[in-house]
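Why Flagellar biosynthetic protein FlhB? Reviewers of the renewal asked for a concrete example.
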Amino acid sequence: MENKDSKSHQKSTVRIKANLQLFADNGDKTEKATPRKRSKAREEGQVLQSRELNSAIVLLSAFVTLRIFGQRIYEEILKCLKVAITLYPTKDGLFTIDGLMDVYSETLITYLIIAAPVLVVVLVAGVVSAYAQVGFLFTTKTLGIKFSRIDPLKGLKRIFSPKSLVELLKSIIKIAIVAYIGYVYIKGEAINVLSMMDVDVVSTAAFLGSTITNAAIRMCIALVVIGVADYGYQWWEYEKSLRMSKQEIKEENKEVEGNPEIKSKIRQKQRQMSMRRMLQDIPKADVVITNPTHYAVAIKYDPEKADAPIVVAKGQDYIALRIKEIAKENKVEIVENKPLARTLYNTVEIGGKIPPELYQAVAEVLAFVYSLKEKINK
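Here is what the prediction returned.
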């Protein structure tokens, strides 16, 4: 009685452990995402991207362009102002609605032309940066309305979630680093401000513009470095969000490959069809080589269609017996050759050619069969 209770207790313990293991496998997402999961996430707009890096590259491109074309932009703006001040007052009807609109439109076009290099560079930098991270992606699923986004409770949870705290910490660190770099550079240039006391206003403005631009470029380079680090963090977050449990992988495999039972039935049907085709080809064979009970291999040789004899059927035990029965019914010669039958069965697939090393042995069998047919015909 105690032994029975002990055995039942052991069985229940094993069952409980198995259930707990299954539960653990279902809940713990420890496996890397499959290509199918990654493809679905991409279609839904869930991609690996660092907005910090995008913004930093765009800002750096803008300030570098300003640094390169700054002198030209300054000259063009100065020219535009001179024209507006000296030329337009001499025009008739300047202070009418039409006159003011002319001034406004011409000035606007001039400023757009001046700003064009910066705008083009910023646009190209933004597109290239986004494409380098995400590639080409067009999806409307991210535009769908999700009522969970306007739920106040879920909104509060998102605000005070660990991810939000991490983002806040990142922002504080980023601001501190960038502010420190800008402060150090401007402090180093502050000594040159005293030398600008006796310089004209234009030179002073040029100095200040150059100093501010250089400081901004250095700060943007720091932002790019921070953006690269953020990209690494976003990669870790992205991979973590895509992780799958073992059960999810099993379910996905079922969806992709089909139910194992259905697959088994399909394979069984395929084997049956292959078997029927093989048995139908036996009457066309020239000879069946046996060992004599366990193996049977049917061979056909047609010099006009193939340069070597072909195995049209082969089988073991019951199938070998069935091959011999069909061969007898259709008056196909059966030759016993144990080593050759076993070698052919193990080395040549159905529909395959006889390998060169077996040419001699098979040729002797075929020659024997052809000689028997000639005697019978005579």
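The first helix runs from residue 2 to 27. This is the kind of structural detail the renewal will allow us to pursue systematically.
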